[in-house]
Structures are given as structure tokens and as C-alpha cells.
Amino acid sequence: MNILFRRLALLFIIVANPFVSFSQNSNIFPVTIGQQVPDITLNGLINSNSETLKLSNFRGKLLILDFWATWCSPCIAMIPKMDSLQILYKNKLLFLPITYQSKVDVDNFLERRKIAIGKIDNQPMVVGDKTLSNMFPHASLPHYVWINGEGTVVAITGYEEVNSENIEKLLRTGNLNLDKKSDQRIAYDGELPLIIAGNGGDGHNLLYHTVFTSNTLGLNAGYSISPDDSLRSKKITATNESLLRLYMLAYGEGIRYFGKNRLLLRVKQPELLTTQLKGPPYEDWYRAHSYCYEVMVPPAMSRDAFHIMQHDLELFFSAYQAKVETVKTKCLVLVRTSNMDKLKSAGGKAEVHFDLYSAHLQNTFLNQLTARLGGLYMQNSPIPIIEDAKYNGRVDLNIQANLSSLEAVNTALRQYDLKLEEQEREMEMLVVSDR
Fold first, then answer.
1. CATH class of the domain at 2-173
2. How far apart are CA 183 and CA 267, in angstroms?
């Protein structure tokens, strides 16, 4: 078969050129099923009596381009099958193996193969290819391009379709209705991170990932937690947040808020984690000590997302350790001042509306008030705020007050017989210490 192939390649008589005329200096454009193949010159031939051939040299025969590589197991497994098919169809069929690998790599492979199977492979092939790969782009190997005797691409397939039944049908009828090999190629640079900036795809098929970056100019500081949904991926995203804020988010686990008044720092250099700087010095400190982080997991792992974030923080910032401890501490506790029920909801749609000077709760729970006060409007309080009114039902509550002022809030809460008062309580605190 191999000797026959070389003789045929050299004895072709060109009387009419069915291939499209094409300049070697022109840009190479992808060619697909139904299109004519440009009559390019093939360089990098080995096992051939000619250093170059043109595609038009193969006119009148079914030419199957075999894109392969020495590391590709299915490619290697196809070699004896292609030998048999070429012998079976003699002068009607030609396989032309093509690889991007160098002549040295291919020669070394062929030498090892000769020792292993006791047979010399003299199949003419193209090595160091770039032109044909650009003409027929593909992402997986082996990759086969079927070109009929008139120079038209009639099929682009994987290896399973390369069989005597399909070859017989094409040679007999001139038609071969096979699905095109699904083989999309997208831009990818192995020196750059996968997916980032579109490198290797747009990320629509991500199943699981975590990512850390330093401060990223142009992004606002903040975080988001995707809603719990058994049908969607769980995602936690923090942008330009300090390390302390990342710890607060990770160990809050979406069910509690660790503000500064629920944080204990037991480190020798707290200035690496927090600062009292203001103005431009603070901006410089912030850019040097803030990070972006994201974890995304499939629905089945949604409960693990915060634990994964905790583990990532432990690995990346190994100088510190964080944990939640129960500590007796001073708190502002929301309590009732009488047994009269002035809170019971009249029903209706559940609503929660807050701004700096008002709070509106309708048909919802009282802990919404302490959560907003402690997490936002009174977050600078030196002691944490908790709810212990011992009222289990839904409430209606409307107050007008400066929500950052304890005195103003307590004045407004009197109409509901509620009060924020200082008490000592055992509560969970986030403790960050040197490892």
C-alpha cells in the first residue's frame, strides 16, 4: 500500500485542475463541506520521493486527510485500519496523514513503532503542518476531511465514520450525508488563566471554580450571595474587600453577620488587617490590602460553598487562622418592656423597607429590624445588636428616626413597648489570630 501510494502520487498526469487556484502567499481561510479546496502546495513531506506536492496531484481519487499526532491513541489505532482500507480500494482511495509535530518527533515515533511491531511505516505524510490545520480547524484528534475527485469537501468526520461502508457509498453514488464532526475551536493561550478574559471560552459551562485576585481597579467594594436554589449553582462573590471582610463573609455562612463589634483580633500586626487611616493614605492602604474572591459550585454542593471559601482563606492566608467562638460580651439587646401586644401583624404582603431615617416592617419578623440596624445603620456601634424580644409571630412596625442613633431609635420604639438595652450575653464571635 505504501509503495503504491508513492508511485501514484508521482505518476499523476495533470490534464485539468478541479481544485480552486490559490496563491501560497494568500491568507488561509477555513474550508467546509460543499466547498472547493484551494490548490495549495504541500510542504514538509516525508516518506515521499517528492519534496512537495500540490493537492491537485490527488485529483480523480477520494482523498482523506488524516489529522493525527504521535500522542493520540485513537490516531495510532487507526493506522492498520487505514492501511487495510487503502489496500481494499487500491487506486480509488488515498489517505494523507498530517501532523503539526516536527519531523524529528515523527521519525522518533516511527522508529519506536518499528521496534514494537516489527514493521516499517513508509506512509507518505505531512509534518510540521500549519496551513492545512488552518484550512480545516479542529480541536480534537483524529480529524478526517473527505475530499472527492473533483476537489470538493464532502465530509468532515471523526474516526468511527472511516469505514468501508461509507467509503463504498461515496465511491458508488458520489454522495455521503454524514453529520459534520462537532469540533469547535476557540481561542486559548496555555500561558494565561483558563476562562479569564475569554481565554478558552466564555465560562457559560463552568461547573465549579474558585478565584482570588488582588485589588482590581474599576470594581466597587461589596459582595453578593446567590439565592439558595436547588436548580442553580451556588455562587459567592466578593470584590475589592479587605481580608477581615472576607473572613466575616466566609464565617457568617449567609446566616449571621459578623460586624466589627463581633470580631476579636488576636494578631501581633493588626495594621495588616485593619487601619484607622483616612483620606489618600487610607486609599493607598486599601488598594494594597483588598482582594477579589469568588466560589461557584454545582447545586449538589451548595451547602459546601462557605466551607470551601473558609478553606481557601486558610490556604492562601496561612499566617492567620479564623474560627467562631462563643464569648460572653456586652450587647445591645432588643427586648419588650411590657406584656401588651402592640406588634401583631394585620396580615397582607410581607414587606421590608429601610432608609437612614425610617423602618417599615409589614407581616414579617422582628429580627429584620436588628439585622438591618446591626449590619448597616448602627454597624459602628462598639457592641453588637441582637434580638431577644421573645415574640415569635409576624409583626407590623413603622418608625421614623435616625437609625444610626441609639437614643433616637429607642425613642421611636417606645410606641411598640420595645427597647434596645445593654446586657451581657454569650454570643458567637469571629476570632482571627496568628497561626
1. alpha beta
2. 54
